[in-house]
Structures are given as C-alpha cells and as structure tokens.
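Worked example 3. Consider a protein that binds adenosine-5'-diphosphate.
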Amino acid sequence: MNEKIHIRTQAADYILDSLNRITQNGFVAYNLDGVITFFNDRMQEVTGWHESEMLGKPIKDLFLAKEFKTLANGSDMVSYAVTLFTRDGKQLTVETRTTSILDADAKPDGYLTLFQVESYNKNLDKAQSEFISTVSHELRTPITSIKGFAATLLQQGNLLDEEKKKKYTKIIKDQAERLSRLVEDLLAVSRLENRKVQLTIHPMNLKPMLESVSEIVSSKYNNSHKIDIQCSEMLPNVWVDSDRLEQILTNLIDNAVKYSPQAKLVEIKARTCQHNGSEMVRISVTDFGIGIKEEDLRKIFTKFSRLDSPLTRVTEGTGLGLYISSSLSKLLGGDLTVKSEDGKTTFSLFLPTKHHEGGTIWWD
Ligand code: ADP
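Given these inputs, the predicted complex is written out as structure tokens:
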C-alpha cells in the first residue's frame, strides 16, 4: 500500500471510524496530494466502489478533476455540488462540504469531504432509470415514423400521387398526436407525483357527462361499438372536479372499446351504493372483450403496464391511463376497482356524494 496513506494521526483515525458508524452521509478523507486515505461504508454503498479499490487512489478519480482543484486549493471550508462516478458507469450529482484535517501542530494534514447522500436511494435510482428507458422507447417509435415519412415527402414528394401524399401526411399527423398524448400523460404523472394537482370540487350531475364522454369515444372509433348507459332514478350529484372526472371516464370507456372486438356492447351503469362505510355513486364500465387474467389485475394500475395480447399489440397506448385514473379517483375522495371473469371486465369508479376537500394518494 502507498506509504502516503498512513499520514493520518491516530486520533483522526478514531474520529473517522466513529463518524462512519453514526452518519448516513458518505465521506472520504485524503492527504495533501489528493490520495484517498479513508472511504466510508456509505460511500461504498452509493458508488459501488469497495474501500480496497479506492484507498491509495487519487480523489480526482472519484469526481470531476476541475472540481478537485477547487477542493484542494487550501480554503478551510468549501461546499458545492460535484459529479460522482459510480462503479457501474453512472454519474451522480451530490452536494459536498470539504474541510481541512489538521495535525497535532494545527498544520493541514489532508482533507475531509462529506458527500450529502443521506436521502440517496438505490431502488429509486433504478426505478428512475427504468422509467427513462421506457419513456425513450415509447418516444422512439413515433419519432422514427415522423422522420421517415417526412423525409420521403421531402425527397420524393414530386413523384408521389395525391393519395400517397395524403396517406403519409396523415401518418405524420397521427404520430405527432400520439407523441402529444404521451407528453400529456407524462405531465399528468409528474403533477400527481409532485402533488401539484389543483382540484375544484363541486356538485355535478353525472348523466350528461357520461353521455358526452361516450359520444366522443364512440365517434373516435367510428361508432364501432354500442355503448349503453343506465343511470338509476334519483341519482344524487357527485362531488368532484369535473375535468378530472372526465379524464377518468374517458380512459375507462376508451379502454372498454379498445380492448373488445368490434360490434360488442359496452355497458355503463351508475347507481348509489355503500363503499368503505360511506354513501357513494358507483359507475361501472363493463366490456365483453379480451379480459384480464387474475394475476394481472393489480399490475394494470402501475405505470407503463401493458398486458401482452394480440389486441394490445395492435392498439396504441402508453400504459399510463389506469395509473393516472386510479390516482385521480383517490384524489377525488373515491376509488377505482376492477373485476374480470367469464369474458366480462368491469371497472368500478366510486365517487363521493357529499361535500369534501379532496382525498389523499399513498404511493408504495
Ligand atoms: P393503455 O390502454 O394506454 O395501454 P392503461 O393504463 O389504460 O394503458 O391500461 C393498461 C393495460 O391494462 C392495457 O395496456 C391493457 O393491457 C389492460 N387493460 C386496460 N383496460 C382493459 C380492458 N377493459 N380489458 C382488457 N384489458 C385492459
């Protein structure tokens, strides 16, 4: 081992060992030449580098060199963000604080840098990178298609007949709309997860909204399905934010049509019921389509979950709709459940019938 790494005083050793046991932060000690002399447990956990790989190595190997110069310029205490290199090739930006380690004669003997990684969570990091990779994948398909057809129109536009030109322009428009829906869904997820959804709760008559959403969805699919709406007599008003409710109903009715073959029936029923000890209105949307297997029922409410089936493969979707609908229904003080058996799938949306301030979402 490099001689220089033995420069720490015994007292400093004990202090660093004790600090290592009590802190959730990472820290690294290094001598005046920038050679690492102490690499604590938390740093090993966060960066993936083992102590044995780091001791004796230059500190500048751990983060950007230009930042190291600032650290070692003799100032007593500096704090700023640095970019750490992890063992698996990732870069992590963290806040640091650096101070000098003094020897018995109060002369600088080295440096101690604290990396503020107390809230760093490896699982969160993994979830984030999975999210980025899924989003990139979802973006790539429409972008490739837009680029390809735009290039064809540009290069061979004069040679194409009117019908082909129209067809290609329509593909570009459809794919741009798909991109825009994906971006809207991503923004909705981000607003929900950052608790930035503003609600305006007011009493609302459900029937006109059920009718208008059904009509919009039906015309989107060229009236390929029969949508039947039954509301019980004397249905009380529901206390909701109407924009959010429209978003949930559109998702449920759209899915019912999308995941069942043409000419099938979609049934929508609204009636009062008791749910979790309160009077609520239950809106059930039933279809007779591809169904959902028992083991997949929970999965469909998570982000980007699309179940594999021949129909799902040919239908467009982001896999974000039910995640958003389920979160929004909780924010509206309600609930969203699903049941699928004997070729019949029913999503039930429960909504409050009394004044309330909005509900809370608990994420796992
Ligand atoms: P998307 O429809 O955009 O894929 P959703 O979050 O709305 O996303 O739905 C998630 C998945 O749940 C769908 O991809 C599909 O596999 C399944 N699903 C949703 N609704 C139904 C339904 N009515 N019948 C069968 N499967 C469904």
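Take a moment to read the result before moving on. The chain has a mean pLDDT of 85. Residues 251, 255-256, 259, 287, 289-292, 300, 305-307, 312, 317-323, 345 surround adenosine-5'-diphosphate (CB under 6 Å).
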